[in-house]
Amino acid sequence: MKTKAQFLGRKVIQIIEVTILIKHGMKHTEAFKKIAKKHNVKPQTVLSNCTREIGLVGYGRIDRFLEKVKNDEIFEIMKDEILLIKSIM
After folding, report:
1. Residues 5-35: tens digit of each pLDDT
2. Are 14 and 50 in contact (CB under 8 A)?
3. Which residue blocks in the chain are alpha helix, DSSP H?
4. pTM above 0.85, yes or no
5. Which 8-state DSSP code applies to residue 60?
6. Which of 21, 53, 73, 77 has the lowest CB atom count within 10 Å?
7. Are 78 and 2 in contact (CB under 8 A)?
8. What is the C-alpha end-to-end distance of the chain, expressed in Å?
9. Residue 36 C-alpha from the chain's centroid
């Protein structure tokens, strides 16, 4: 059974991996698919980790995620997630 820290860590890793692929020019849909295949999950799981799990909900959540990636705001969000993981380890 995975601990909460391991679960959160996997989520953070997936978000970072997707961000890197998008920053290198890959379309977000392909990035979600590639990372899903790598982690043996569905693309919807990766999409959820990149949006809902970091507070982006409702219509336009993918566009808001892409905007945060483009403006490097995603790294500030990830910093908070990493601090959360560290606090429960």
Report:
1. 455 678 888 999 999 999 999 999 999 999 9
2. yes
3. 4-23, 28-39, 43-50, 61-70, 74-88
4. no
5. T
6. 73
7. no
8. 15
9. 11
